[in-house]
Amino acid sequence: MKKFLIIIMYFYSFSAFSNENKVAEELYEELRCLVCQNQSIKESDAPLAKDLKLLVLEKLKEGKNKKEIKSFLVNKYGEFILFKPTYSLKNIFLWLAPILFLFFGIILVFRSHKYSKKIIQEDIQLSNYEKKKLRTILNEDHKI
What we know:
The protein has helices at about 1-30, 45-60, 65-75, 90-120, 130-144. It has about 140 residues and is an all-alpha fold.
């Protein structure tokens, strides 16, 4: 009976370790290395990334969940540590900027197209003096 309980406890602890490891791996992929900046701490070999990995594991062993660990790291390092920033009023411009730039870009293209059409279609009325001067300039160009 003791052996049976020991075996059950062994497999239970292994599954808990496996789950903890899975959560840690997910967090490693979601957190940015502050030294490398475009790598997750999972991909980075920087000393700070290794320290962050140990910190994540330590917090998981303390019983913290993903959200609590992320919140702790954001409070300590700022939202830059997250690859995907949170939706909040502080960074609403970050989420809306691409849409706004696209919208204003489309308006700018249509307005410039409309303006260029207007210039092309505009009839230019020349006075008799201007017509005469234009003819002489054009005739001089043909002679050369």
